[in-house]
Specification:
The protein is of the alpha/beta class and about 425 residues long. It contains 18 helices and 13 strands. The longest helix has 23 residues.
């Protein structure tokens, strides 16, 4: 899909996913690393808990379908000169440094566009390139809090809890990749490049499922609700225990989801876990009945207790089977090992093997994020070693001599 195009990936650990998405779509992604490798290679966890730059699972997760070259663009004029040669033939450049850093190296968008006017230059930062927060310190936790989702995570009677695996910049990187494709579509028409400015804070706002719009729309603000959703004072649970874990249930009301709740409670009745009065409640208008007081909270508690008694009697797999058979909105909450052993993912051939010759092994990787019939996504390359493609790029493509490359390496430029 993007096989004719080249991406220069100058991102830190903030933006690695963006280049991988473009690489999965077929682009030739060149990961530019400092000599010795990107600091992201030292981010754990590590394969078999053995810390090593080539065993970082974090690095493996975000650098498939890339080639790697080393360049000390921060300290070496010669390295920046090589990068400028690469910019001449590139179609995208992505970076995730603090605002002003690239400009300090003579590599701002204006600098790069002067070399290649058609290039699409993507910047990923915590709070955008400009504005009152542009220079603020950041972390995954800070971005989640500033973006809004942290207001919704955790139990209602306790402080918020963070997302255990850092994800803020995964959101920002995915949006950056989409924005790059939109700009690429525009370039095909106008032949003009452009600068894309992606704020991680703005990106994670989407993870609130539009609840961040409560205040400007004048509707009640949404807060943490302990595994469910609140309709005014009414808490609608969304997580229920199974005999071997937990399941998520869309146990909601109204014209859209009320019919599913009716089918669910009919099944709960058929299996002997509730009486007719629970089965036959008006689950279309149930919120209105609760808010008006026509349906007392004690009755709603009785409904929840009946549903929980039913889910506790089943395994997650049995609950999923019931959902598939009867059109119910029930999904198991899976452990990592359960996801890896999923029969559904195996049937869809989701896990894709990639050879790691440096470890003399093959590693199963999560599969393609989308399936295309005419241009299927392929995993061509496992995450590269630092500088693995120096020779291929510098000698075979740029035409440097062995002596030139040796001198650059001896001087610390590559």
């Amino acid at each position: 899909m993007l096989s004719p195009y080249r991406v220069l990936d100058l991102t830190t650990e903030r933006g690695l996913l963006c280049g991988q998405v473009l690489g999965d779509l077929g682009a030739d992604v060149i990961k530019i690393e400092p000599p010795g490798g990107s600091p992201a290679r030292n981010v754990g966890p590590f394969y078999k808990d053995e810390p090593d730059p080539n065993r970082s699972l974090f690095w493996w997760a975000y650098n498939r379908n890339k080639r790697s070259v080393t360049l000390d663009i921060e300290q070496q004029d010669a390295a920046r000169a090589i990068l400028r040669r690469l910019i001449e033939g590139a179609h995208f450049l992505i970076e995730s440094h603090d605002p002003g850093y690239m400009a300090s190296l003579g590599l701002s968008y204006d600098d790069v566009a002067a070399i290649n006017p058609g290039i699409i230059y993507v910047s990923i930062t915590p709070f955008g390139q400009t504005g009152p927060k542009a220079g603020w310190a950041d972390s995954d936790l800070i971005v989640w809090a500033a973006g809004g989702p942290l207001a919704l995570t955790g139990d209602s009677d306790r402080p918020p809890v963070r997302v255990s695996v850092p994800q803020a910049y995964a959101h920002a990187s995915a949006e950056a990749a989409v924005a790059a494709l939109i700009a690429h579509h525009e370039r095909a028409r106008s032949r003009r490049g452009q600068h894309i400015d992606v704020s991680a804070q703005a990106s994670v706002d989407q993870a609130t499922l539009s609840n961040a719009l409560s205040a400007p729309l004048g509707v009640p603000d949404v807060r943490r609700s302990s595994g469910g959703s609140k309709y005014g004072p009414i808490l609608v649970r969304g997580v229920y225990p199974a005999s071997d874990g937990y399941v998520a249930i869309s146990f909601f009301f109204g014209t859209a989801l009320g019919p599913m709740t009716r089918r669910l409670m009919q099944h709960v009745y058929d299996e002997g876990f509730c009486d007719e009065s629970i089965r036959d409640k008006d689950y279309i208008a149930y919120v209105e009945l609760l808010l008006s007081g026509k349906e007392p909270e004690s009755e709603y508690a009785r409904v929840r207790d009946a549903l929980e008694a039913w889910t506790r009697s089943k395994t997650k797999a049995e609950l999923l089977d019931a959902a598939l058979e009867r059109g119910l909105l029930i999904a198991p909450i899976a452990q990592v090992s359960e996801s890896f052993d999923s029969e559904q993912l195996a049937a869809r051939e989701y896990w894709q093997p990639l050879d790691h010759p440096e470890l003399s092994m093959t590693v199963p990787y999560p599969g393609a994020f989308a399936k295309f019939s005419e241009t299927p996504l392929r995993y061509r390359l496992r995450p590269p070693l630092a500088g693995e493609h120096n020779r291929a790029l510098y000698i075979d493509e740029l035409g440097m001599t062995e002596e030139e490359v040796f001198d650059l390496q001896a001087n610390g430029a590559i």
